[in-house]
Design a protein that fits this description.
4 strands; single chain; mainly alpha; about 375 residues
């Protein structure tokens, strides 16, 4: 402390001398001398050094379980990849030191969880055992059973190849037939469309007219037959009705005769003859009634049959008229139907070709 005080005093004295020289130096040549004085004081001199920055270790090592520490940037050793397996991880189980603690060679810094490593080791050992067993089997050579099994497998494969080849041939043949059929159907549909668009020929028109005339004649004949049948049936019923009326009159007359003879007390022989006449007249009336019933039934059946024939002939006539109309002028409906058949045939042909192409590609893939 004393030397600090002495140094400070010396500095003050030097300073005062410098100031005096500056002040009174110019006047040294004058006759009078002036002095400036100052009170000397004791004080404490303080010397400080101020600095800022970051403290860092001299070197950092990367620690990874199962590997040698490497010099580099610092990193946490929570997990790592062992040198034994590129996919094996080492989760940290415990950490035995803290940051800043001094350690020496041989100290345990952290402990890893070896569960995954042990599991991987078991798997690798099992794989090794299986590989050694296969190696032993391969070195010993195939057994008779294995050779027989291999021969059977070869024969089965050869049979499968033969079957596949046969199936492929059948498929190609079937596809070829399908394509040919589809082509023929398309050609037929196109021809039918062309015919529909061109309209009927003269022969077709003549044929349609002949068919229409024949249908008209058949219808007229059926109507005439129906009328004739009605007339004939009416006559038969009228004749049967007249016979019944005559029989009923004869029966009434016979009963009247019996009543008259009985009233005049005719003989028993006469009454017996009258009774026989009544019986005969009754039988004749019954027969006439049966004949009338049969005539009416036959008339009903005949009229129904004739009406059916007329209806059938009328249907045939209507059909012939439609056919004549269709076959004498191009029909928009027929053209549209023919166009639809062409489209359907084109779709069938495209589908057949696609199936054939798919079968060919599948066969090529199977061969490869």
């Amino acid at each position: 402390m004393k030397w600090r005080v002495a140094a400070a005093t010396a500095l003050i004295v030097v300073g005062i001398g410098a100031v005096g020289f500056v002040v009174i130096g110019p006047s040294l040549g004058k006759s009078s001398t002036q002095y400036i004085t100052s009170q000397v004081a004791v004080t404490t001199v303080t010397d400080q050094v101020v600095g800022s920055g970051s403290i860092a270790p001299h070197a950092s090592y990367s620690l990874t379980f199962g590997a040698v520490p490497t010099l580099g940037t610092s990193s946490s050793a929570n997990s790592g990849t062992g040198s034994g397996s590129a996919s094996l991880t080492w989760p940290v189980e415990s950490v035995n030191v803290t940051v800043g603690r001094a350690v020496k060679k041989g100290d345990v810094l952290a402990t890893a969880d070896a569960t995954s490593a042990k599991l991987q080791l078991s798997i690798d050992q099992a794989t090794l055992t299986a590989a050694e067993a296969r190696l032993k089997t391969d070195e010993a050579g195939a057994t008779a059973a294995q050779i027989a099994s291999a021969n059977n497998a070869v024969r089965s494969a050869q049979l499968a190849v033969a079957n596949a080849s046969a199936n492929a041939a059948e498929t190609r043949q079937s596809n070829a037939i399908s394509i040919t059929t589809a082509q023929n159907q398309l050609a037929d549909a196109q021809q039918a469309l062309a015919d529909a668009q061109a309209g009927p020929t003269a022969d077709q028109i003549a044929t349609a007219k002949d068919q229409l005339d024949a249908a008209q004649r058949a219808y007229d004949q059926a109507v005439q037959n129906q009328a004739d049948t009605k007339t004939s049936d009416d006559q038969a019923i009228a004749q049967a009705q007249k016979s019944l009326d005559d029989a009923n009159a004869a029966y009434a007359l016979a009963r009247q005769q019996y009543a008259n003879d009985e009233a005049r007390l005719a003989s028993a022989a006469t009454l017996a003859a009258d009774q026989a006449a009544i019986t005969a007249a009754q039988k004749a009336a019954d027969n006439a009634q049966s004949a009338l019933d049969n005539a009416q039934l036959k008339a009903t059946q005949a009229e129904q049959q004739a009406a059916g024939q007329v209806a059938s002939a009328k249907a045939s006539l209507d059909s012939a008229q439609r056919a004549y109309t269709t076959n004498t002028t191009p029909s928009a409906t027929a053209i549209e139907a023919a166009q639809q058949k062409v489209r359907d045939a084109e779709l069938n042909l495209t589908s057949a070709r696609q199936r054939a192409s798919a079968a060919t590609q599948q066969g090529a893939q199977s061969a490869n």
